[in-house]
Design goal:
This protein is mainly beta. The protein folds into 3 domains: 141 residues, Sandwich (Immunoglobulin-like); 216 residues, Thrombin, subunit H (Beta Barrel), CATH 2.40.10; 116 residues, abc- transporter (atp binding component) like domain (Coagulation Factor XIII, Chain A, domain 1, Distorted Sandwich), CATH 2.70.50.60. The protein contains 3 helices and 36 strands. An 8-stranded antiparallel beta sheet has the order 16-15-12-13-14-18-17-25. A 6-stranded antiparallel barrel has the order 19-20-21-24-23-22. The protein starts with 17 loop residues before the first strand and ends with a strand.
Length: 512
């Protein structure tokens, strides 16, 4: 909910004027006096989402925004200062107060009003009209709601001519504009196996002429990659401009045709709590605009920074762009903490929780992707041949279930896992893998277990010398011991193979 401006130009004082922003009637300006609203609550009820200052407020379809965001103002050139606050808090009628503080810390004016918020997110701006000789230095505007501190915005006033450098024009876009900007730059990405059958469907978008970016997991394990444009054009993509498996991104060389490109936001311009937009794909061919917010961030050793947004998205949205309210590109949906886990979570015990996506969706900041200048272009075929792709699951219909546990009770038939888990300590010394076979048709082969790092480096494998015969309608079992003592902390992958086919997979973490 946006608190709209109620302009009153007759509120002059010698140095400044405070203009309150609300839909209710503005109360008279008051000189310094004790704050109203009673004692603060034990726990904060109001959270400052953002505050922005500038010299001009614009109305974009009922949504107010600062047209020239900045924190330094020049006198006598600048005539006013607007500070726009956005909060989250309980709906209802609240008492708002704004305290303008001069550089010496003294409150020079207090303004107050009452407003009924119909939604839990609401905002408004305060305006200060500059006189001829305002105090120079660092000012602060303290906001209070119902007597509770609701954020502080600082800005500087200097007595000098404003620089001639033009201020880039920025405005909040309405949702329809954001949707159009994202959709006209986005494509679908088909991950195909060798016979040309589709393994998965993801998204991607153009960041420059013939430069298509998507999550690395969108193409991981593919024999072929096909691009489907909004107008139904299908283009095979084999050339790779740049890539980073651990960060989970890849740039493909693809003819963009008439499609538009996304413009990145300034690095570090986002903050936790910012409102953002993303294209979800609830059904094939159906892109929908989701309004969400950045709810967290984390840093990964070797993987860079990640953001988290509050909404869970479909797998088809892997590789979609994340945009701010100006329609600028912030990030790439993806950035999984476990390379290769995105499209096998149904078969992989614990992969989703280990990947840190049990709540919301992980996003890779676009600043890790643009500009990408490794200078080592390659092809999809070469990535597969050099071991960068994770082997696809094949023949997994022969496996009824797989379990990773601390131990097994082999005295029971069937064997029973003890303490099923996906996280171990090196003090555990070992982990046990139990696979239950129930094939659709009789099959013979040699089962084996392979242990990998997240970078696809093979650490160990079982000898795999005993041939087994598995039969339909009859349960049979295979078990392996995974030594843990010499493994440093980190996340590892376990593959179970039957001859050359990878039939089951899981991930686990080692902690000290």
């Amino acid at each position: 909910m946006i608190i709209k401006s109620a302009h009153k130009r007759n509120l002059f004082v010698p140095l400044l004027v405070v203009l309150l922003c609300q839909t209710a009637n503005t109360q008279d300006q008051k000189p310094q006096q004790p704050l109203a609203g009673g004692a603060q609550a034990a726990e904060p009820r109001f959270r400052l989402v953002r505050s922005v200052s500038g010299s001009k407020v614009v109305d974009n379809g009922g949504r107010y925004a600062i047209d020239d965001p900045r924190s330094v103002f020049y006198v006598p050139g600048d005539k006013e200062i607007d500070v726009y606050f956005t909060w989250e808090g309980p709906a209802g009628t609240h008492h708002f107060e704004g305290l303008w503080k001069k550089p010496d810390g003294k409150v020079t004016m207090i303004s107050d009003f009452d407003y009924t918020a119909e939604q839990t997110r609401f905002g408004g701006y305060f305006r200060m009209l500059l006189g001829e000789t305002p105090a120079t230095g660092m000012w602060a505007l303290d906001a209070r709601i119902d007597g509770e501190s609701a954020g502080t915005h600082t800005f500087q006033i200097v007595a000098s001519a404003r620089p001639d450098t033009p201020v880039p024009s920025r405005r909040f876009l309405i949702p329809a504009e954001i949707y159009k900007r994202a959709a006209t730059a986005s494509v679908f990405i088909e991950n195909l196996n060798q016979p040309g059958e589709r393994r998965s469907l993801s998204s991607g978008f153009f960041i420059g002429p013939d430069r298509l970016v998507t999550a690395f997991q969108a193409v991981d394990g593919a024999s072929k990659v096909r691009i489907v444009t909004p107008d139904g054009r299908r283009v095979d993509a084999n050339e790779v401009i740049d890539w980073n498996r651990r960060q989970d991104w890849i740039i493909l060389k693809v003819d963009a045709g008439h499609l538009s490109t996304m413009q990145p936001a300034a690095a570090g311009s986002w903050a936790v709590g910012d409102r953002v937009y993303v294209l979800d794909v609830p059904a094939e061919g159906n892109r929908v605009l989701i309004e969400t917010s950045i709810v967290g961030k984390q840093s990964l050793s070797g993987g860079g920074e990640r953001l988290s947004i509050g909404d869970n998205l479909s797998r088809r949205a892997q590789g979609s762009p994340l945009l701010n309210e100006y329609g600028e590109l912030i990030g790439l949906i993806g950035g999984s903490l476990i390379p290769g886990s995105a499209f096998v979570e149904d078969q992989v015990y614990g992969a989703r929780s280990l990947a840190g996506t049990s709540r919301g969706t992980v996003v890779l900041p676009i600043s890790l992707v643009v500009p990408a200048t490794s200078g080592h272009p390659t092809t999809i075929e070469n990535l597969a041949g050099s071991g960068q792709f994770m082997p696809p699951l094949k023949g997994n219909e022969d496996v009824l279930s797989g379990v990773l546990s601390r131990n097994l009770n082999r005295k029971m038939d069937p064997p029973q896992p003890l303490e099923e888990r996906s996280e171990f300590s090196r003090q555990d010394a070992r982990a046990m893998v139990l696979v239950t076979w129930l094939p659709k048709q009789k099959r013979k082969g040699i089962p084996s277990l392979h242990l990998y790092t997240l970078d696809n480096n093979l650490l160990n494998k079982s000898p795999g010398t005993k041939k087994i015969s598995v039969n339909p309608q009859k349960l049979s079992y295979s078990a392996w011991e995974v030594p843990l003592l010499n493994l440093p902390p980190g996340v590892y992958r376990v593959d179970v193979l039957l001859d050359a086919d990878t039939v089951w997979r899981t991930f686990f973490r080692i902690v000290d």
